[in-house]
Amino acid sequence: MSVLLIEDDLEVVESIRAALTARGSVVEVIGDGASALKHLSLTKYDVIIADRMLPVRSGLEVVKDMRERGDGTPVLFLTALGGLDDRVEGLEAGADDYLVKPFEYAELIARLEALVRRTKQDSAPTHYRVADLELDLLNRTATRANAKISLQAKEFKLLAVLAQHEGKTLTRAMLLERVWGFHFDPRTSVVETHISRLRAKVDRPFSFPLIHTIRGAGYSLYVAPDNPT
Amino acid sequence: MAVVFAAMYWLIGAQLHSHLESSVAAELAEFSSEWEARGFDGLRDIVRHHAEEVRDADAIFVLQSLDGTVIAGNARGISPVVGHRTLAHREVAAEPAVGDADDTFYVAGAMLGDYFVAAGESDEEVDEIQDILIKGFGIALLATTVLSLAAGVLLSRRMQARIKGIRAALERVAAGDLKQVIPGSDARDDVGEVVGLVNTTVRDLRIVMDSVQQISNDIAHDLKRPLGRLQSQLALAYDGAKSGNDIQQPLADALAQTRDIQRVFEALLRIAQIESGARRAKFRPVDIAALLGDLYETFEPVATDASRKLLLVRGEPATINGDEELLTQLFANLLENGICHTPEGSTITLGMEVTKLAVRAWVSDNGAGISDADRELITQRFYRSDKSRAVGGSGLGLSLVAAVASLHDAKLEFADNHPGLIVSVTFRRVMI
């Protein structure tokens, strides 16, 4: 994955670069918004990480400018802690996701991978199949091994988000945002409880599990290599 | 005014009367000097001459012999009294039809030789002038009353408009908009002075609020970088430690602690931002019934897993103007409080009721409830009724609830649920 990191805080730059390079990504770094825009008119990347606060031109302006030029490269917006409006402004300007600093690398990587995957699909499909699990988003139906699974609205949404990112890790925060619209960290185990309910309906009655816990990171829907497909 | 008028009325009356008296006295003196100069003939002629000149029956002149026979004049015989007196019209009028029957005459009489001579003048003029005075006063009084009423209405209208403007601005201040400048401080009166003082107070308050917000932002800003570093170093150490190594669990715990610190910062900064009121610009119509339905579906299994029961009292769809994300957090906080601060087996109810103008949503439980003293303080930052701090949480949950409610101009109430606690939030309904 090729990544352009637009960030002027050298400490943040070094740690992000280390984390992404270790996973085999190619990371280029530019320290200000104006140079980044100039550079982006010549080179393409899989994904861009842009800090909100940048010298010369802000991250917000960079995203706006890119989108006006028709550049659809996915952008992950980095915002300051507690910047309630930064996120909304970033998304309105055309960013695809956001992350509040400080963050954990698992969170950053999960979000970047979800972004790259999202843009590779031309239009969002309405039908998903993972092994013998089938999801129809239009009719809101789920079947596994041809047996209909009865799911509540939130459970269906949770399964759909997992299926849309098959094989990728979704962190608790990502699930809270995408399934429940929670942009805060609840005190109770909302995600764990619903994952457990979903497993009881989607995995337990069948021969092999599809929902996996990724330790220290989140959850993922996939067929484990040692299971039949 | 009435006193001034009464004095004027009396003075003018007295003045006119003394004028009357001196005029009558002058006529009598004229008669007397004619008598001395020309004797009876002269006296008779001058009385006759005076009487003939009288047109309006407002003066009498009479010359009579001692037996009462009128020799000359325009009056009937009157009793020969020397000196002055007041006689009615009927006592002096030669013919009753002439003159005004209501008039009285000021009459002065004198003996000249064997003759009695008298001159008198009607006080009709005095009456008329006094009449005019009364009428004039009436008109003046009426005009003054009408004018002062009109001026009063105009002034009070103007004052009302000013007060209205001041009130509207103050309401916005009370709603948290400290950038308001209350109009009318340039007026040079008491109200203007008060407005000026209020403006100064609001400005000072804004400076204080800004600096408080600045301080909490600064603290969080200064601490978040070391916090981030700490977090990443712990994460690296955790990844580096071999599974099953003695150090791995303490590292995982330390990592969890940094997340808690981050959560507190996040909550503090969020509350500060909500209190600034800036989010109001992003208000959209929100259906409270749908929002509560979603939250019920989210927290019902959570409550069940925690051995509590969550019930939903559904209401008809009702729209308010608000920030859906913050409203979700508000009710999520209340539900989580209900789940975390009640004994196992408790029932928590999420409900709503809709009236014509308002939507009231509530979260109630049948747990131990809170004391009256706690109810007052419960929304303060970091306040906990549980002094041992045995139950987790940042102590910021209800501060955030209060901040979000206030942002929405909603009424937040904590009450006794007999047993337990009921927290209700009442919003203004938006009709489409």
CATH architectural grouping of the largest domain in chain B: 2-Layer Sandwich
Question: According to CATH, what is the topology of the largest domain in chain B?
Answer: Heat Shock Protein 90
How many DSSP helices of chain B?
9
Number of strands of chain A: 12
The tally of beta strands of chain B, per DSSP, is 12
**Rg of Cα set of chain B:** 50 Å
Strand fraction band of chain B? 15-25%
SSE blueprint and pairings:
The complex is a heterodimer of chains A (229) and B (432).
Chain A: E1 2-6, H1 10-22, E2 26-30, H2 33-40, E3 47-51, H3 59-68, E4 75-79, H4 84-93, E5 97-100, H5 105-120, E6 127-130, E7 133-136, E8 141-144, E9 147-149, H6 153-164, E10 170-171, H7 172-180, H8 190-202, E11 211-214, E12 218-221
Parallel strand pairs in A: 1-2, 1-3, 3-4, 4-5
Antiparallel strand pairs in A: 6-7, 7-8, 8-9, 10-12, 11-12
Helix pairs in contact in A: 2-3, 6-7, 6-8
Chain B: H1 2-53, E1 59-65, E2 70-73, E3 83-88, H2 89-92, E4 104-112, E5 115-122, H3 124-174, H4 190-240, H5 248-275, E6 284-287, H6 288-305, E7 309-313, E8 319-322, H7 324-340, E9 347-354, E10 358-365, H8 372-377, H9 397-407, E11 411-416, E12 421-428
Parallel strand pairs in B: 7-9
Antiparallel strand pairs in B: 1-2, 1-5, 3-4, 4-5, 6-8, 9-10, 10-12, 11-12
